[in-house]
Amino acid sequence: MSTPTNREQWQNLADTLITQGEIKADAFIEGEYQASLSGERFDCVSPIDGRVLCQVASCDLEDANIAVKSARAAFDSGVWSELSPVKRKGIMIRFADLLEANKDELALLETLDMGKPIRYSGAVDVVGAARSIRWSGEAIDKIYDEIAPTAHNEIGMITREPVGVVAAIVPWNFPILMACWKLGPALATGNSVILKPSEKSPLTAIRMAQIAIEAGIPKGVLNVLPGFGHTVGKALALHMDVDTLVFTGSTKIAKQLMIYAGESNMKRVWLEAGGKSPNIVFNDAPDLQKAAEAAAAAIAFNQGEVCTAGSRLLVEAGVKDELLGLIAKEMQAWKPGHPLDPATTCGAVVDKQQLDNVLKYIRVGIAEGAELVHGGNQVLTESGGMYVEPTIFSNVENKMTIAKEEIFGPVLSVITFDGMDEAISIGNDSIYGLAAGVWTSNISKAHKTAKALRSGMVWINHYDGGDMTAPFGGYKQSGNGRDKSLHAFDKYTEIKATWIALD
């Protein structure tokens, strides 16, 4: 079947999946779909229109025990962990190819489950997920170990080995993409993985497990456990036979996972957490129109449910009014619409809880004295879905709640500054340090500002750049470790020193 080209075609495909019960909704353990041991299930509700898509298996401690046992047995058997890198590479590339071959189904599941526009689910999320798997697979037989400089009668070898069993807890905003940022290097290095998707958007992870088996990944090497964080997520974090825990999500949960790791077996913990990223526009920005387009996209794309969202727009006083007017015009291109319409750029917020949270922050912004200059309303209420207008606040002070706390919705705080020093001071005045943008024609100012910002990623004269070759991660309470690039492989390997006496 060819890719649907309009809303009606996508809706027909969705109706077929839902009414015929073709959506996979069980846990995936030892290469097979199975219900949770308790038999408990939860409703998977689409934020598009409030429709129940299916009932998903709700896993807990006992399911985690079985999945960990399966993953450990697969690892210890060597069926994957001892496979040559070149053979693992071939299977990983096949996995990526199959993700692309199933792009329409996966994109549709992502949109139905999470509410993002279909135009991005396939072209950004699924394609990016496949690229991550393929890139990691292609890299694995090109990473060399080391030989230490030694005396003539000794040999010092530094080698990397897979850590063992990895538990990956991923968020609801980019479900398949964030999963594959973990799965790529974790699987390529020979580990067994237990993937715990968010209960808000589990469907692509569940379907992807079957695709992995089709690609040739052995049974038990990849298990998927849907369920809630306080049940199965906690069970994995506390499990004594999980060697490494990787997580993308909120800073609050990241802190709790560190506690669980310390209370159990001191498992390695790698965390990509929250952000409140400053997007800094100086008076000498080379192209204000381009800066306005980027600022609008940086807060409205994916309904603002992005950890790197440019949610704090720092504007030098001389260009504030002009830039703010340009951004308001650009927001017209980000009006919420039906996510299955290929023309829609801004879809539904993931669920009612998140919608209520975003609306609460808008009310707080108004109460604290920020000036609401665009949006701020819930819209499309007749649809039964969860939609909110992209919102702009001006005259924001960095001490205000909307400037300090991660909203995870399309709410932009515009803060005025005078000079580079004040911009850097405001930019760094946050518990987070994930990303930042800098707009200037002065190369020295660009370098000085980028160097001074305590952020893991800084983009100059654009926003949200990079590809698989560059690391992704932050400073401070935005977490530790890095996704993407060869640096990601560090999280999934142990370094062993072997010293050999030749006499």
Automatic annotation (TrEMBL):
Entry-linked InterPro entries: Ald_DH/histidinol_DH, Ald_DH_C, Ald_DH_CS_CYS, Ald_DH_CS_GLU, Ald_DH_N, Aldehyde_DH_dom
Catalytic residues in the record: 272
A family per Pfam: Aldedh
Aldehyde dehydrogenase domain boundaries: 38-497
Keywords: Oxidoreductase
A molecular-function term among this protein's GO annotations: aldehyde dehydrogenase [NAD(P)+] activity
Similarity comment text for this entry: Belongs to the aldehyde dehydrogenase family.
Protein name: Aldehyde dehydrogenase
